[in-house]
Amino acid sequence: MVNAIDAGWHAHVTRLILELAWTGYYGFTRQLIEQIGLSMAVAEAEQGALPVVPWLKQDDEGPYLEGHRCGNCGAVYLGERDNCSSCGARSGISPEKLTTRGTLYSYSIVHRSFPGIEVPYVSAIVDLEGGGTIKGNLIDVEPDPAKLVFDMPVEVVFRDALGRKDNEGNAYVSYFFKPI
Description:
Shape: globular
Radius of gyration: 19 Å
Distance between the termini: 52 Å
Low-confidence stretches: 1-46
Strand content: 35-45%
Mean pLDDT: 81
């Protein structure tokens, strides 16, 4: 029987391991999980698919994009930072969930890519409502300039990362933009 202290420790260690996995230390994490005797099946079920970038997070409600907002000037950045590039503040930058709606700022239709990547596709830069600018692929639209309109409304959707898997067979989740 597990007592309350052991259960609390187990939950804490599991959260730590899953956080390490989300930040890209999955190979190390698998070894650690096996060493402390946790079930890989349980840990993987709690973890879900691996994010393709550090600012793609997941909680009980599902995946989301995390930005960091400067408390001094309100600038929003992807990825963690200690200083604001806009106003130079050295503190007061805090994480927040970014919105899932925005507008198409710019795009490029990609005709040549790495082997195995289907072309053409639309690489887009989107200004998110509430702040933040992010690059990703625009899906569910023809890669034709006549069909792409600057400032068109888009939403962020989260899907399998085009079937990509790591060396251990773990799936990845990514974000994409979809016209509204």
